[in-house]
């Protein structure tokens, strides 16, 4: 494919943006058809783009761009296991992880769904053993607490989903409490170890590579803590550790018993891995049935992505509206704003999914791109962010594209009618805030009728014209969360397909890992000297400061 910036539709979109100029969303939104034209439903999900600075012609041109970039062929290549991760010469097959058990997917002469289903079955056995109180530590007590040791994709996905679906704990099982420790400085682990009983604690050592220093360090500390308290290292390893990785050899080398190893494949990227055995904490939290519901929701979205016309395709539309903002309106910031406390970690999860995937500046052909790619993305629970950074959205100098995300229904399962009403009132208030904010961002102070006596005071002005998308889900369940995550995965893929970049590698994080090791050596210097040849003056200064002040 030639550069997208050389395509006729790219040029036409540039002209469209020029033509649109400073036209305010207030004007565009004054059209009764707009909501119908720019919103789409699929299976309990609603995507509304009517608060985007998009006209019918814009959408047409964006779809033309998608076609000129051969998007449909690329989607097919993704889903059928073509080796589209060119720099690592392999496919990206996270979608295969959510295939129904009776489907086949032949890649390189193998039906890969056989291995996937076998891995799910092994995971199920472990989960059921733990839930039945049959997994016992070295003292014979059943496991009650599980700590997931992992970082990046081996942490953020499971953490986000476990938090979001905490209400979906299955009844009639021994509850296990799940905690997460990722930080290399050990602060989360130190906190957990203060409270935990080693006799009833199980660690999941979760790392695709099984060589990430952050997780290795935490696992070493956990192992030391267990052996110190319980003795007998061999039994500790056997009864207090499960390993999840792409490498059996490395797990065995570290001491994980074979029966406690869950394996996944090199064609699952870390940030796309929560559907694999990396999702073990999720299955422990919501049961295997719930985990399979999560997979089913994602699969339904995969089907929609594969078969819907581009004009009705939710991930395609979400991606194209992003492309419009980034490449043609020059809006390089993206905020993720869920209006449901259970989605607290969803923005964090998306920062890795989007920025590690599409934070690239080299095309698939190895050329430097001459257009912007992934925006700076951040987010927070919307109602809390209203009291933190919304000031910038309303009156700052930056244009920001916002995604508002909310479930329509909540709390209907609460049995006590009075408590149910109280919480449903709170949910309604949250939804009202969500809609009020997106409306205000769109219209500015025109959202509120003016009194004649009102004086136009500059510091009271809301300029509006901030674009946003709204994503509503009927209710938050394992199934709908699966859909929501897959929707964003595919959005990322579509944007990468248009930018002609590889969303499945992350070479930009490798160098940092290497030089951190050399830097650690410098911090160990007994003579407290820093080799001036090895470091720049700024870093030397910091190292010297620490070497002379660190307390042993
Ligand atoms: O350093 C980045 C990264 O490689 C991510 O892509 C990945 O999710 C994370 O580290 C953890 O990697 P692993 O699962 O191999 O420990």
UniProtKB/TrEMBL annotation:
Record has Thylakoid as a keyword: no
Main localisation: cytoplasm
PROSITE patterns: P_GLUCOSE_ISOMERASE_1 (PS00765), P_GLUCOSE_ISOMERASE_2 (PS00174), P_GLUCOSE_ISOMERASE_3 (PS51463)
Reactions listed under catalytic activity: alpha-D-glucose 6-phosphate = beta-D-fructose 6-phosphate
GO molecular function: isomerase activity
Keyword annotations of the record: Cytoplasm, Gluconeogenesis, Glycolysis, Isomerase
Pfam families: PGI
E.C. number: 5.3.1.9
Active-site positions on this chain: 356, 387, 513
EC primary class: isomerase
Pathway where this protein functions: Carbohydrate degradation; glycolysis; D-glyceraldehyde 3-phosphate and glycerone phosphate from D-glucose: step 2/4; Carbohydrate biosynthesis; gluconeogenesis
Compartments where found: Cytoplasm
Function: Catalyzes the reversible isomerization of glucose-6-phosphate to fructose-6-phosphate.
Record-stated family: Belongs to the GPI family.
The protein's name: Glucose-6-phosphate isomerase
Organism: Marinospirillum insulare
């Amino acid at each position: 494919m030639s550069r997208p910036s050389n395509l006729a539709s790219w040029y036409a979109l540039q002209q469209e943006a020029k033509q649109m100029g400073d036209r305010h969303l207030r004007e565009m939104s004054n059209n009764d058809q707009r909501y119908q034209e720019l919103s789409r439903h699929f299976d309990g999900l609603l995507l509304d783009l009517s608060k985007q600075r998009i006209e019918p012609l814009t959408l047409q041109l964006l779809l033309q761009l998608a076609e000129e970039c051969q998007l449909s062929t690329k989607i097919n290549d993704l889903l059928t296991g073509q080796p589209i991760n060119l720099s690592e010469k392999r496919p990206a097959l996270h979608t295969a992880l959510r295939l129904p058990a009776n489907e086949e997917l032949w890649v390189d002469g193998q039906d890969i769904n056989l291995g996937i289903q076998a891995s799910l079955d092994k995971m199920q056995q472990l989960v059921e053993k733990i839930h039945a109180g049959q997994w016992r530590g070295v003292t014979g007590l059943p496991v009650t607490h599980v700590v997931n040791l992992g970082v990046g994709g081996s942490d953020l996905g499971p953490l986000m989903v476990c938090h979001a679906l905490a209400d979906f704990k299955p009844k009639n099982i021994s509850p296990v409490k799940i905690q997460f420790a990722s930080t290399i400085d050990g602060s989360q682990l130190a906190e957990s170890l203060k409270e935990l009983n080693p006799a009833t604690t199980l660690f999941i050592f979760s790392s695709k590579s099984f060589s990430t220093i952050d997780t290795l360090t935490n696992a070493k500390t956990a192992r030391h803590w267990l052996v110190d308290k319980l003795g007998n290292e061999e039994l500790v390893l056997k009864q207090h550790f499960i390993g999840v990785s792409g490498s059996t050899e490395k797990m065995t080398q570290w001491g994980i018993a074979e029966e406690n190893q869950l394996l996944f494949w090199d064609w699952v990227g870390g940030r796309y891995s929560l559907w694999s055995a990396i999702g073990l904490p999720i299955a422990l939290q919501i049961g295997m049935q719930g985990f399979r519901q999560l997979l089913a929701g994602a699969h339904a979205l995969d089907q929609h992505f594969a078969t819907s016309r581009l004009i009705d395709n939710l991930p395609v539309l979400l991606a194209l509206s992003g492309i419009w903002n980034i490449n043609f309106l020059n809006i390089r910031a993206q905020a993720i704003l869920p209006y449901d406390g259970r989605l607290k970690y969803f923005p964090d999860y998306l920062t890795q999914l989007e920025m590690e995937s599409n934070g690239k500046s080299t095309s698939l052909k190895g050329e430097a791109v001459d257009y912007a790619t992934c925006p700076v993305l951040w987010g927070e629970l919307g109602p809390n962010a209203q009291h933190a950074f919304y000031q910038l959205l309303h009156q700052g100098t930056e244009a920001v594209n916002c995604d508002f995300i909310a479930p329509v229904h909540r709390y209907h399962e609460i049995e006590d009618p009075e408590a149910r009403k109280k919480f449903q009132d709170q949910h309604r208030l949250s939804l009202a805030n969500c809609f009020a904010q997106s409306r205000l961002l769109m219209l500015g102070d025109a959202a509120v009728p003016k009194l004649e006596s009102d004086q136009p005071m500059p510091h009271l002005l809301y300029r509006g014209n901030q674009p946003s998308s709204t994503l509503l889900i009927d209710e938050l369940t394992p199934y709908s969360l699966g859909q929501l995550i897959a929707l964003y995965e595919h959005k990322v893929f579509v944007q990468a397909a248009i930018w002609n970049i590889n969303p499945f590698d992350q070479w930009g994080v490798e160098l940092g890992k290497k030089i951190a090791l050399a830097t650690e050596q410098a911090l160990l210097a007994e003579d407290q000297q820093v080799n001036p040849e090895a470091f720049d003056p700024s870093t030397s200064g910091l190292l010297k400061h620490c070497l002379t002040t660190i307390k042993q």
